[in-house]
Design goal:
Layout (H helix, E strand, L loop, with lengths): L19 H4 L1 E2 L3 E3 L4 H11 L3 E5 L5 E6 H9 L26 H11 L3 E5 L5 E6 L3
Helix pairs in contact: 2-3
Length: 134
Amino acid sequence: MTLVQMQFRPASAHPVHRTVADTMDAAGPQVWENMTVEVALSVMAADHTGHLVVCDEDGLCTGLVTRAGLTAVRDSSGYTDRIRLRDIADVIGPFASPLTTRVEAERAMRCRQLGALPVVDEDGNALGVLALSR
């Protein structure tokens, strides 16, 4: 595993070139992709969060689910209590690198209408979550 060396600088220093690593939040709760939609919603409610990082059986980040997305799945006509997070098409990606600039990441999130984006290292481990500023 290769570690990325990061330099910390004041928030006022070159705000245009700030990276995702400078502004991301902690990854928060991480759940397995074989978890059901109902259980994931319960985890969100217990943790008072609007999103969960989803990991595969090796602990690598496969995506992120939101309360709004899971609620939409649960309220759909095809919903059953057997639907797992891995069955939801939008669970997989996209991801941001910690070296991506904040401006680039926010632009991509707005184009894809994402409120949050997982930040992963080169091995696929979740480092944090970037929330879109309003």
